[in-house]
Amino acid sequence: MKLHFYFARKFALALFGVFAVFGLLLTLLDIVDQLRRFSDTGISFGGALELSLLSVPQTLYRILPLIVLLATLVLFLGLARSSELVVTRAAGRSALRALVSPVVVALLLGGLGIAVMNPIVAATQVRYEQKAADLSSGGGSVLSISGEGLWLRQGGPEGQTVIRAARANLDGTTFEGVTFLSFAPAGAEVQGPVQRIEAAAARLEPGRWVLENAKVWPLVGVPNPEAASSRAVEMELPSALTLDQIRDSFGTPSAIPIWELPGFIANLEGAGFSARLHKVWMQMELALPLFLMAMVLVGAGFTMRHTRFGKTGLMVLLALMLGLALYFIRNFAQILGENGQIPVTMAAWTPPVAGILASLALLLHLEDG
Known about the structure:
There is one protein chain. The chain has 369 residues and is of the alpha+beta class. Helices cover 59% and strands 17% of the residues. The protein has helices at residues 2-37, 45-62, 64-81, 84-90, 95-98, 100-136, 243-250, 261-270, 276-286, 288-303, 312-338, 344-368, and strands spanning 143-146, 149-154, 161-168, 174-183, 193-205, 208-218, 230-238. Strands 1-2-3-4-5-6-7 form a 7-stranded antiparallel sheet. The radius of gyration is 27 Å and the shape is elongated.
């Protein structure tokens, strides 16, 4: 048991060291990128540092499997140089039993990533997008989804318009049960809502909304809005919204904490949108511990050997290439799952399971073959 704790402690220290190095390098690079990106706004170094601290956690979380792979290489290369693996084998412990501690640490790290790091990354990502939007004066998200339906916002010279819809089609171009509430622009003599429109359906086309069976209530300059209301079989409203803006507003699953994803998926499907993107992301997150375990086994398969055997550099290179290949296969499977070309479960769970089985076969062949 003491030996297991010893290996677990060394692996945890290796993880912390690699994580710290990557965090420092990514922060420095991101500070330079933020200074360049927002140079026109006169951003200070402190502002760039704040944006970097909000942006870097997302990058670190995405490359967590590669960090685990590098930490595994650091661990077993160190054990090989100090001949500790030789001593472990001489004491009657097989190399596979020495892998138990790093694997358990990887699984715990994956669970910690899902339970703690995922919500933190989601919060920092949303905060970063808000601050970046404020600096670039681009405004915030144009759409939000709740149990009461869809809420959109659009702006223009004529003022802001809040849009509520009960449902939408799968591509987000047609909305049902729509309400448009228009507000006066800033600086106008009259402030607050100026017009309300309810329509049975609204279709988003380039540069305009096309409303069907609409009823219009003027809210300014009339004593009785209902008496002054009018109806139209079809009418048009100008709009600067695009389909890409609407999709991007709810198309980033990583910006939603995993604890809120099931409810968000239910609301998304209830609103008429496809939630496949979010389902794939949730399954990929749940499969993260197994994928980190696969990375540990991949790294161990090529480095659990004494340095006197030679070709250490070649073995490290092979481990990195195989680990990177598995990482890109996972990302490719995620894309196939999001496009609907393979089932969601297969996209999320096949790469880690295949990586674990292939690595175990390699380890068994090298140790007992």
